[in-house]
Automatic annotation (TrEMBL), chain A:
This is 3-oxoacyl-ACP reductase. The lineage of its organism: Bacteria, Bacillati, Actinomycetota, Actinomycetes, Pseudonocardiales. SUPFAM superfamilies: NAD(P)-binding Rossmann-fold domains. GO terms for molecular function: oxidoreductase activity, acting on the CH-OH group of donors, NAD or NADP as acceptor. Belongs to the short-chain dehydrogenases/reductases (SDR) family. Signal peptide: none annotated. InterPro entries: KR_dom, NAD(P)-bd_dom_sf, Sc_DH/Rdtase_CS, SDR_fam. Gene3D superfamilies: NAD(P)-binding Rossmann-like Domain. It comes from the Bacteria.
TrEMBL record, chain B:
Belongs to the thiolase-like superfamily. Thiolase family. Residues 9-276 form the Thiolase N-terminal domain. Pfam families: Thiolase_C, Thiolase_N. SUPFAM superfamilies: Thiolase-like. One of its GO terms (cellular component) is cytosol. It comes from Pseudonocardia halophobica. NCBIfam families: AcCoA-C-Actrans, PRK09268.1. The keyword Transferase applies. Residues 287-433 form the Thiolase C-terminal domain. InterPro entries: 3-ketoacyl-CoA_Thiolase, Thiolase, Thiolase-like, Thiolase_C, Thiolase_N. This is Acetyl-CoA acetyltransferase. Coiled coil: none annotated. GO terms for molecular function: acyltransferase activity, transferring groups other than amino-acyl groups.
Amino acid sequence: MSTDRFRDLSNTALAGRLGVPRVPLLRRYEPGQALLPGPALVTSVGAGRFAKPIAALVEESGQHVVDEVGDQKLAAVVVDLTAAVALDDLAAARAILTPAVRKLAPSGRLLLLGPEPAEASARSGVEAAATAQALDGLVRTIAKELRAGATANLLVVAADAPPAAVDSSVRFFLSARSAYVDGQVVRVGVPVGSPRDPAAMDSPTAPEKPLAGRVAVVTGAARGIGAAIADTLARDGATLVVVDVPAAGENLAKVANRTGGTALQLDITAVDAPERLVAHLTQRHGRVDLLVHNAGITRDKLLANMDPDRWNAVLNVNLRAQLRITEALLADGTLLQDGSRIVCVSSQSGIGGNRGQANYVASKAGIIGMVRALAPVVAERGVTINAVAPGFIETEMTARMPVGTREAGRRVNSLRQGGLPVDVAETIGWLGQAESGGVNGHVVRVCGQSMLGA
Amino acid sequence: MQSTPRRAAVIGGNRIPFARANGRYARASNLDMLTTTLDGLVARFGLAGERLGEVVAGAVLKHSRDFNLTREAVLGSRLAPSTPAYDVQQACGTGLEAAILVANKIALGQIESGVAGGVDTASDAPIAVNEDLRKVLVAINGAKTVQQRLKLLAKLRPGQIVPDIPRNSEPRTGLSMGEHAAITAKEWGVSREAQDELAAASHRNLAAAYERGFLDDLVTPYLGLTRDDNLRPDSSVEKLAKLGPVFGKQLGDEATMTAGNSTPLTDGAALALLGSDEWAAEHKLPVLAHFVDAETAAVDYVHGRDGLLTAPVYAVPRLLERNGLTLQDFDFYEIHEAFASTVLATLKAWEDVEFAKDRLGLDAPLGPIDRSRLNVTGSSLAAGHPFAATGGRIVATLAKLVHEKGTGEGGRKARGLISICAAGGQGVVAILEAA
Ligand SMILES: NC(=O)c1ccc[n+]([C@@H]2O[C@H](COP(=O)([O-])OP(=O)(O)OC[C@H]3O[C@@H](n4cnc5c(N)ncnc54)[C@H](O)[C@@H]3O)[C@@H](O)[C@H]2O)c1
């Protein structure tokens, strides 16, 4: 992995005296770390039904909650705006947020909860819809204005979602696990599948192991982001089945052994790959609680010079294999159960396009189409499917980029740095929890609010 | 045959790609390769931290530091350090003999699980000092004063410093294994063409097996090598016909054995995972095959009439008789290709009426086999043959083959025969049956 020397230099005393803009060191999760390093402001505008349970959640984690801005630095600011219907409510939010952002600590978290514009419109009229939509632009702007590794995100909550539906998402966005997820808007609906008792799932005796007892499959896990996903899911308690091409078996075995999982050497594009994966999972585990489609390749060329081999190779690995494997698992009928989760690794290029990557972009955009189409289908079985779209992530792939492109990729985002593989992994860990059933058919960017494709 | 309480299950295996000597694994030791292969097996079957009944393996070419090779490999692996281990050595029969030992303990209920196989490096072969030098060094070690030591050192002559490199030759005949095989080939009239055909088939079959993903769960890449580097997918009888003889050269025009139809010196390791059916079920692991029975034979190749590598010719009829089977009752034959001529001479001996009567004491010969069932995913000519590793490679391969086939003629369980010849005039053979 390439190291970000500029970030390190920018944090020296000399750089400070020279006025070089500081690239913040992001706070990241470590086992045993508390949800927040300092007190949180949790409040609401109007009669929001989430502020209270969220305050309780924070207090339960051992952190102090305040309802007004004081002298103290704040580790997090949570404003429940789900009851906001008018421009006056927005003004009230401004009155809370202006002093609050000034008190936000480095790597602080600003989290807004708002209503769905369409629902707001139907229930309370046009001004409510305008108010709801205003939050979208507001949070994206706050994210751009915040400094020192602080992030701002918005949960758009469906009117009929019970308060507990947002718990796993609130935990993720407040914690250091969401270090590189910034300026994002995530919709939380009524959780799919049978109702879950969060207390039973997120066992209070093991809050550090939100994936305890879950069987997770990760493709492309021999290195890079896939290996980080395996490590992170194992850390959170999952039992791993790591998959990669036979030629990558040497590293794959190491990942399997360090995570206490099993290695499955399989080219996911092989004709019988779906069948072999299903047979393997049936024999070894009888189920799969989290399927992570991570394997991906690039074969860059301008479209004008694109040959069918390059096109097909990328589409086959990045998209066709995901379609076929998902289809086979759904057809099997027993492996994916109520509470199972599917997460696909897309890319910000799949959203914004990228010169020289027509094949890659088509595959990554295709993933988003697949996720949206499958979401209502799998929901009937209590299963969710989501995508994560990484931005610039420091891996062997990005280390090989020309210096100019790499520097540009790193800096054109609100956190002024590339993300780490673990940042993508943490996001997948959140979406992979049984408790995250409220998020379905969504694309979560892990990009530090990159300007590319935004 | 007496009924055993239960049959050991073959669950799977792991090997590293085999590398031609002094190549990719030139700097890897037996311990490196065995430990890595064990870790690959642990990864494939999710055994990290697990205590197994035992791990049994060995090497033919061993350094003195390798005295507890297998136990050291276990300690360096992800298996629980409470897993016992020991070394065995029966030349090229080592891997299969190890599997027999583990299978027998499982059958007797003494252990529930075990790993068997072996490793060899021809690159990192133990180089010893010659006998003269050894005497001087021992004396120096025993000397009391520096002066005495210097005096002894001064006596050293260049001839004494020539190292003793292990040779692939029989101590009692001084002949290399290839020379022995050449004698047997001549005796049985094994033609050059037949040998080259067998060699080409081995390469073709192994290449096809790789292509269809058959080795995906049998091999784990090592030191950047992803396939056996002796494998020539484009090998052909025509190309092999161009090679000059390397063994039996004194036969002149009649010499048939070339570098193409003999196995090269190779480095590598292979292991098979065995267990009871219950242990496999508890660990949600598949049972590919059961270990049915095994037999070991030895021949007097020094003074008698038998060839060095012909012991399996004797072992198989005894094994068949004990199990009430004929040679034709098998769906797969895994006959280790030490040399193409060895396989062909073995098959000829089983077909020979006189030999059956005079030497095997049988009324009729065992008869021919269906050659399309022989070494169907290639064997040592293509993969290479790190001596002690071959047994583990074959056990795992055959277990997978009978599992894939499921049933043979008349709906009986698919069955396979393993035959491995070994230095010292020994032969180890075994039967596996689909679970
Ligand atoms: N690195 C980034 O900045 C970045 C950005 C956006 C998206 N992504 C996506 O994240 C995922 C992981 O990327 P990475 O940077 O870790 O790449 P990587 O090349 O380091 O790892 C990809 C892994 O997938 C495996 N793989 C490839 N083809 C396969 C096949 N047919 N069957 C099984 N495994 C196969 C590879 O062997 C490799 O181990 C990819 O989908 C990639 O498109 C990466």
